[in-house]
């Protein structure tokens, strides 16, 4: 079977803003776990804020419980939990679940670990993980996903790429060789991205996705995303996309669900929050880069929209980093 990963993930960039966004999906890993479990077994997965968790069932069967709902999974199933919610995976309904951090996890690399656990009965092999996306715009895509996104290798509607990735990942997990953990993490990243792409591609005619596909409003959104420091006005955006001020404002709100100026403010604050959390850039530098004329103007706008100041975000991030060590 020929499988060129680079060819699969390198699609041509188009003038379609949504297609371009999907093309640039990138993620960072929190952790990956290869689990060898034997019945009876149960694992209580903790919530992980701002992350997306997933499970690939390589062998056996799994009962997933989340939000008082149960999902029966079998070998070849791939499931994504987009909102990082706590949940339980186990072999059967009556099996007790042990918190993940209380189990005998073996760290192979800083982000890759293995787990062997259970009562010695029926075997189950899993690849589990948690990832987060580096582009704040992707949060809008994630918000459109269901609480549980389930894809089966045997589902005829699943893209061929996804079916092949599931098959290769399963084979790699069952026969770990030198460097196998690196292969698993890379393939898992690609599988998550393709699964999201497939779902979004099937839902393009609703809400924000429909706005991104709209010739004029999609172009306006693209301009806002690419140049958040520009002093956009209703008139300047309307002129850019060839519409009257009134028609543009009405269509933008109809498709996006908010006014253009409010959307611009929200987008700037998303970028600001990302840089405050992930960089050491000064508050003044961030504010100027996002089109504000002074640090005080940026801080006022940030607090008005978020309810807290930029410096509070910085302090909270330092506390989180300190507690993680």
Automatic annotation (TrEMBL):
Q: Which GO terms describe its molecular function?
A: DNA-binding transcription factor activity; sequence-specific DNA binding
* Entry keyword Transcription regulation: yes
Q: One Pfam family of this protein, by short name?
A: HTH_18
Q: Which InterPro entries match?
A: AraC_lig, Homeodomain-like_sf, HTH_AraC, HTH_AraC-typ_CS, RmlC-like_jellyroll, RmlC_Cupin_sf, Tscrpt_reg_AraC-type_HTH
Please list the residue ranges annotated as the HTH araC/xylS-type domain.
Answer: 218-316
Q: Which residues form the signal peptide?
A: none
Transcription regulation in keyword set: yes
Q: Which UniProt keywords apply?
A: DNA-binding, Transcription, Transcription regulation
- According to UniProt, the name of this protein is AraC family transcriptional regulator
Protein's organism: Neptunicella marina
